[in-house]
C-alpha cells in the first residue's frame, strides 16, 4: 500500500514539474512587420496585382460602355476578364467575373449594382501571393451630367503570401477593404479621391497569427496614403510599391 502511495505522489510531482515548464515556456508570436503588412495591403490595391485600382478601372470602363449603349433599366450584364503579365518586376495572372444590374432614377441611368469574383497570383518586388477575391459594390454617376463615377463597396481577398524581405514570413492572409466615395473622374477614369478602411489578418506557420487595421486616403495623383498602427506609407496604385513617410 505504501509503495502505491509513493508511486502516485511521484506521478503528481512529475505532472507539476511538467505544468511549470509549460507555463514558463515563451509564447510564439508572428513577426510580420508593419512594413510587410503594408506590402500585403498594397497587393490588394495596385493595378499590377489586380487590386482595387484595377477593379475601379474595369467597372467604370464597363459603366461607360453601358451608358453609350443606352441600356434599359434593370438590364443584367456580365463581363469576364483574363489578364496576364510576365514582363518587368511584376508578374501576375488573374481571371475575373463581373456581374452588373443597371439601375435608373426617373428612367435615367443612375448606377450599377455590381459584384466580382476573381482568382490568380502576383509576384512583386517585396511580396508574392496566390489568392482569390470577391467584391460587392455600386458604381454611381452613370447620368450624362455626372462628372465622376463614384464607387462604394467592400472588397475581400484571401490566400497565401510569401515575403521577399524576410523569406521566413510566409503563410495565409485575409484582407477586407471597405471603400467610401471613391471618385473616378470622367472621361479618363482616373482615381480622383476617396477613402477606405482596411483589415489585414493571417497566420505564419510556427509563429502564430497577426492582425492589423488601417485607413486609406486616395490622393488623386496615382497614389494612396496608408496608415497602419500610426505608421504612414505612400502606395503607388500602379506598381504597388510603398514608401514610408
Quick tags:
245 residues; 11-stranded antiparallel beta sheet; disordered N terminus
Written description of the protein model:
- The chain has an eleven-stranded antiparallel sheet.
- It has one domain (35-244).
- With 245 residues, it is an alpha+beta fold.
- The radius of gyration is 24 Å and the shape is elongated.
- Residues 1-29 have low confidence and may be disordered.
- The protein has helices at 2-24, 34-43, 52-68; strands at residues 76-85, 91-105, 108-123, 127-140, 148-163, 170-185, 190-204, 208-218, 223-228, 231-236, 242-244.
Summarize the structure.
The protein contains three helices and eleven strands. With 245 residues, it is of the alpha+beta class.
Count of distinct strands? 11
Strand order of the largest sheet: 1-2-3-4-5-6-7-8-9-10-11
- Quote the average pLDDT: 89
Tally the structural domains. Answer: 1
Q: Mind telling me the C-alpha Rg?
A: 24 Å
Largest sheet: 11 strands, antiparallel
Shape: elongated
Total number of helices? 3
Query: What fraction, in percent, of the residue positions are helical?
Result: 10-25%
The assigned structural class equals alpha+beta
Fold blueprint:
Blueprint: H1 2-24, H2 34-43, H3 52-68, E1 76-85, E2 91-105, E3 108-123, E4 127-140, E5 148-163, E6 170-185, E7 190-204, E8 208-218, E9 223-228, E10 231-236, E11 242-244
Antiparallel strand pairs: 1-2, 2-3, 3-4, 4-5, 5-6, 6-7, 7-8, 8-9, 9-10, 10-11
